[in-house]
Amino acid sequence: MPTRDQGLGDISEFAMLDLGHESRSIRGQSITDSHGRVFRKLRISVTEACQFRCFYCMPHASPPVMRPGHLDAQGFARIAHALVGAGVCDLRVTGGEPTLRPDLDEILIALGEVGGTRLSITSNGQFLPKHFPALHQSGVRTLNISLDSLRPDSFKAITGRRLEPVLEAVHAAVADGFSVKVNCVVSRGRNDDEVHAFAEFAQRTGVEVRFLELMKIGPGAVDHVRDFVSAAEVESRLATGFGWVPLARGVDETAYRIQLEGGGRIGFIASESKPFCGGCSRLRLSVRGELRSCLMRDDRIPLAGLDAQGILRAAGLAFRAKPTERIERVDQAMHQIGG
Predict the structure, then answer these.
(1) What is the pTM assigned to this prediction?
(2) Predicted confidence (pLDDT) per residue in 105-120, tens digit
(3) Are strands 208-213 and 265-269 parallel, antiparallel or unpaired?
(4) The domain spanning residue 71 has which CATH number?
């Protein structure tokens, strides 16, 4: 099985490689690899900062929101525009927590103007409502909001913050016409007894609840054996109170989903127990403009200063280096990678 040390080699020299026919072939065409995967989705981390203190991501103090070398709105848009020319059709803004960027609205609008893509955002929700106008203007229709507990005491224990503003953001987003997905990282002894409550929440509100397996990333790997709850176990708990039918799953979708009888959709992201590396269509762009092939790999390709063709060549190199099997763990924290 691949390890996290299997990187891209001497990536500092990649821009001087003569890729010949391969270089020409990616202009205006999709970037693919020898396993039949197609590069379609770009995750864009606009900050490493977050005001939450989730035990599995950032239990300690956050880095500054802005540092020298961080991309601005036009920097993100320039890279996105080049990659849309190679078949990318799905952009997701992530963090850290995106709403801590003072220029988030400008970033969203710039990305929305790239065109030809579906644009969405992942947020902890606390400050999200004030960005609704810019989200609408940029064409965002889907919001992913992290919500690890429906109980104030458990939510505070997991995140270090209050539950009420996040719940208010979820309800406000639904009322404002957004399609909302709620992401719940399931952890034993913290929130695994809330599976039924979340299913009822999905039925009651119309949001899609997605149960995520705790990943071996950064702080989440420390007590993973103790904390881990598999998607299969969550399904088993749901089966005691709910009937459902499975929904179709795309080849590159991270979640497999079910439709509950009586209404409500549930998704399962089984990154640990049922990895989907073989169909993964994603690359990740850091706030510093570095392209990363996988959540579980430390290697990065800097895109700063490259023209559109150079960005495409870098993306081709990164995508073809993606692992096809699950890597055991990575030490870098999730907020530094882009969730």
Answers:
(1) 0.90
(2) 999 999 999 988 999 9
(3) parallel
(4) 3.20.20.70
